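Module 6 notes. Inverse folding takes a fixed backbone as the condition and produces residue identities as the prediction. Think of it as a translation problem where the source language is geometry and the target language is the twenty amino acids. Below is one complete input and output pair. Work through it position by position during the lab.
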């Protein structure tokens, strides 16, 4: 499970869904929820969690895609077997992100350690949870 720390920059409630915009450094991610969590407000520090299988990777992706969350990353490490590859990606603002892709996809993309790539992540795949304040954490 990937767990990133971010700050809530905006919340847009519509008649169908809620869009939650979070950022860390210069990078922004857009989350989509059926409704706004009651505890959430702009300015909150939050954890953004998502599964390794939800992280797509692209190399040389100049075209338009339907996924809003695209982050430049560097491929730091690869663990590979006959069917799966575990990629450790490094984002300037969000730190390390793990992705699981098939070995076939890895080979087709011609990925290699140290190369630049783009991480793609659907907003519906990102779970959000409150980050406990230091005061609360010190009371445990």
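Target side of the pair, the amino acids:
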């Amino acid at each position: 499970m990937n767990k990133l720390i971010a700050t809530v920059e905006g919340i847009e409630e519509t008649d169908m869904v809620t869009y939650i915009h979070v950022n860390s450094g210069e990078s922004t991610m857009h989350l989509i929820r059926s409704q706004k969590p009651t505890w959430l407000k702009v300015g909150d520090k939050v954890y953004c969690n998502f599964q390794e299988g939800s992280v797509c990777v692209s190399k040389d992706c100049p075209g338009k895609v339907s996924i809003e969350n695209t982050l430049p990353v560097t491929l730091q490490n690869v663990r590979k077997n006959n069917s799966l590859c575990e990629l450790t990606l490094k984002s300037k603002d969000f730190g390390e992100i793990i992705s699981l892709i098939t070995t076939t996809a890895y080979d087709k993309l011609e990925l290699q350690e140290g190369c630049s790539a783009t991480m793609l992540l659907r907003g519906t795949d990102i779970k959000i949870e409150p980050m406990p304040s230091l005061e609360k954490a010190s009371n445990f």
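Reference fact for the lab report: The two ends are 24 Å apart (CA to CA).
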